[in-house]
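Chapter summary example.
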Amino acid sequence: MSADGNLIRRVLFAVIAIPLALALVWYGGIPLAIVLAIAAVLGARELFDLAARQGVQPLRPLGLATAAALAPMVYGAMISVEMRQWITGAWPYVAALWLIVLLTWVLAARAPTDRPLSVAGVTLLAVAYAGALPVFLLAIRHAQHSLRSWSGAWLVFFPLVVTWVCDTAAMFGGRALGGPKLAPRVSPGKTRSGSTAGVIGGLLVAPVFGALVFPHVGVEVPLWHLLVIAGVLSIVGQVGDLTESLFKREAGVKDSSALIPGHGGVLDRFDSLYFVIPTAAALYHLFGVI
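The structure predicted for these 290 residues follows.
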């Protein structure tokens, strides 16, 4: 398919998906946690498929089940004092026991010729990468806001919009300006001019939200805070994009799957957001937003 045809499919998908995503994030709660769990399973599965192309067979049942459990468990801890107290005290022990289970399973199910070190590493990476990193979206949405909150929804959507604008500006800026490649061994199509255009585009989102969005939903964030957040996220998001491209380059594929029209797979759609969401949560926390 041509680049223009692919762009049309992306736009059509976005027209449908973005309002649904906004409604889901506005409502929050269990539905949001469930969607994050589903996305975690799909992302982990795609990562396992990439590894399988290299002859590595991760422990799919353990990895997928754990990735799916993280978002509901975190949301449960956010709304239940008893569960939060239990998790706060027990999580180091649970994590250690989980790792022991993982390594014991590898010992029992994989021979030395089955690349057991890679099996354990990829299984752990899938849980952390596709399962744990997106869970920080719940911290942004529910740290200070309950169900059906526009304030919480737009706090989530600010880093998302920064990322989407950055990606779009980078694509068109790179096409228009060309120039030296950004990371030719990883993603030959990306240029330094496109990357710079992406950062500029991401920065422009800050005054728009600061003037037109946040004041109308009761969110008070100084403009310079928004500019710092947008600038950092524009850079971090591109690093996340290149990281997922590195995984695909090793596996010898263009897309992680064909699940999403015009976008590839879950990893392709969320590659930048895996880095952006926890970074945004950290910056919001640093600046006292959440």
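To summarize the output: The chain has ten helices and two strands.
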